[in-house]
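Weekly modeling sync, notes
Attendees: S.R. (lead), two postdocs, one rotation student

Agenda item 3: backlog of single-chain predictions. S.R. asked that every request posted to the team notebook include the full sequence so nobody has to chase files. The rotation student volunteered to paste the first one in as an example of the format we agreed on. Action items at the bottom.

Example entry:
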Amino acid sequence: QVQLVESGGGLVQAGGSLRLSCAASGRTFSRYAMGWFRQVPGKEREFVASINWSGSRTYYTDSVKGRFTISRDNVKSTVYLQMNSLKPEDTAVYYCSAPENSYGPPSRFSREYEYWGQGTRVTVSS
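Predicted structure, as returned to the notebook:
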C-alpha cells in the first residue's frame, strides 16, 4: 500500500518561502516519478511540478518557474517542493502524487498519477 504524507504548509507573507515535504512508503521510492499539484476550492487540481525517478529531469508550470524547485532524496524516500517569492495566488492545498508504473516520465497530467497524499494547506497573505 503506497502512502504519501505531505507536511510543511502554513501561513506566510507574500515574498516569503516555504518548503513542502512528501514522505513516501509502501514501495521502492527511487523507481518512480513524483509530482506536486495544487487545488483551490471550486477549481480543478493544477499541475505545479514533477521530477523523474533519478531527479535528473524536472518540469514546472509556467507560473512557478524560477520561484519553485522540486527535488528528491531517494535515501529518505521524500520529495520536496521549495517555494520562494510566494504570491497570494499560490494559496492552495498542495498535494504530492505518484504514478503506478515505475521509471515513467514525470507527467504534468493528474490522470497519470495513481496515488495522492492528503494535502497540505499553503496560505500566502498580501
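Discussion: group reviewed the output briefly. DSSP finds no helices and eleven strands in the chain.
Action items: rotation student to repeat for the remaining queue; S.R. to check formatting next week.
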